[in-house]
Design brief:
Layout (H helix, E strand, L loop, with lengths): L3 H5 L8 H18 L3 E10 H9 L1 H9 L12 H8 L2 E6 L8 E9 L4 E10 L2 E7 L2 E5 L4 E8 L4 H11 L4 E8 L5 E8 L5 H8 L4 E7 L5
Parallel strand pairs: 1-2
Antiparallel strand pairs: 1-3, 3-4, 4-5, 5-6, 7-9, 7-10, 8-9
């Protein structure tokens, strides 16, 4: 069954929900997960993003998202100029990504304080997106929920400590996945929640032994 969002699509600056609104959300997600202002970006376009993206404004939309714009921002067509004013450099290349959705971009971004992030994401239609990889690790979340992304070392009981803090903060978990490089190695937790996660809870999670970083994506208002 289709909902009204599927029929009407998102409120956005056109021309295409997949190539424009979705692309803005991909860029904005990368900025959020980086956790600081983006100063440089290398963006690989795959499939139809590479073939028709320029005509649909995909390139400008991705840059707009990296600048923190939302799909209804009237500055999207002028994002190149805004990037120049804000000191953000960027370069686009076309390429092929194995087993990737046709509307996919791989963003390698660096922040003003030296943080780095590699994120592969796809625009799945109607302005929706799916994050497929973070720093080369397979994930799979959409931004439809408030989302915690936690980097830690593989220590016994760490996931239980995180979920305990969320429970104490009265946060209900909608979806959760855990990815680790190897036993005792690096761990990436992706936790989607029905409720907002208060700053105090996020700070307590970040202070847990073995936790190396916490980023938080707030879903867009419906």
């Amino acid at each position: 069954m289709l909902d009204i969002f599927d029929i009407l699509g998102p409120i956005m600056v056109g021309p295409s929900s997949s190539h424009t609104a979705g692309a803005v959300r991909i860029g904005n997600m990368a900025r959020t997960l980086l956790g600081e202002r983006v100063v440089s970006a290398k963006i690989l376009l795959h499939g139809s993003f590479a073939q028709t993206g320029q005509g649909h404004g995909t390139d400008k939309a991705l840059v707009a998202g990296l600048l923190g714009m939302k799909p209804d921002d009237l500055r999207i067509p002028d994002s190149y100029s805004v990037a120049l004013e804000e000191g953000m450099s960027f370069v686009f290349v076309n390429g092929d990504l194995k087993d990737a959705h046709p509307n996919t971009a791989l963003l390698e971004v660096e922040g003003e304080h030296g943080a780095k992030l590699s994120m592969q994401a796809s625009s799945t239609g109607g302005g929706r997106i799916r994050v497929d990889k973070i720093n080369g690790v397979d994930v799979g979340f959409t931004g439809a929920y408030n989302t915690l992304v936690i980097h830690s070392t593989d220590i016994s009981g760490k996931l239980a400590e995180v979920t305990r803090l969320l429970s104490q903060g009265k946060v209900n978990i909608a979806n959760m996945s855990l990815h680790r490089s190897r036993r005792g190695g690096a761990v990436l937790m992706v936790i989607e929640t029905d409720h907002p996660v208060a700053l105090v809870v996020r700070n307590l999670i970040s202070e847990l032994p073995g936790v190396q970083g916490v980023t938080y994506y707030v879903k867009e208002a419906e």
